[in-house]
Structure formats: C-alpha cells, structure tokens
Amino acid sequence: METASPARLYAAAIGALLVVLGVLGFFYDATFGALDAYEEALGTLPVNGWLNLFYIATGSLGLLVAGASSRGYALAMGALYVALAIVGWGSEGLNLVIGVLGLAAVAATPKRGSKVAQEATKEPRNSEPRAKPARQRS
Length: 138
Description:
Blueprint lengths: L5 H23 L10 E3 L3 E3 L1 H17 L4 H18 L4 H17 L6 H7 L17
Antiparallel strand pairs: 1-2
C-alpha cells in the first residue's frame, strides 16, 4: 500500500465526490438520450444518464486504486478531465477543476522508484548506540 501522498488523497477524495455526484445526478435526470442533452441539477451542474454513469465509473475506479496506484489514476483522470473540459462535455468548470487537481497531485507526488520516494518511506535511524550486555562474574 502506498504511503500518504497528494495523489492518494486525490484518488480517494475525488473518487468519493464523483460517485456521490453520479448517484445524485440520477435523481435529477436518468434518461439515456443524446450525450449532449443535459438537465441542470442544482441550477449549475449538467446531468444525464451517460454523464452520471461516467462519474460513478471514474469515481469508483479512484476509490478502488486509492491505496495501490493512485499516481497513475491521478494522471489519467487529470488528462481525461482536462480534455473533457476543452471538448465541452459535461460541466466545463467542474471537469477543469478535477483535471487540474489531478495533474497537480501527480506533480506533487514522487514516482515510486525515485530517490525522493525511497527517502520518504525509509524508517528513521535510531541514533542511540546499542547497550552492551553486562558481564557476568562467576
């Protein structure tokens, strides 16, 4: 399991947020029509059945990999959500925030094999010398 890192926090927090948004989105609009036919949830968040499923799938994936490969998840979701914001599918603002946060989490998390990652996972050395055993007299 990974140590605590920005990518792990991103995978867990954004994963949970996306699952909640996807489930709540079905209460507003559960139709699976055209990809660009949205209903407005809470006045600002566009939802439809496809977008709800997408949020649930990507969020569940984040919760699933939060302890194992969260850096890869943050990179993939960061790039995907920035691309979705550029294309304009779903909520451009939300997609851009999720994407930029993912890319920032990747930048702040060292790679597993790097020297910085190894230094972070090493246990601190005990600087006190070991006590010598007392001599027994016969």
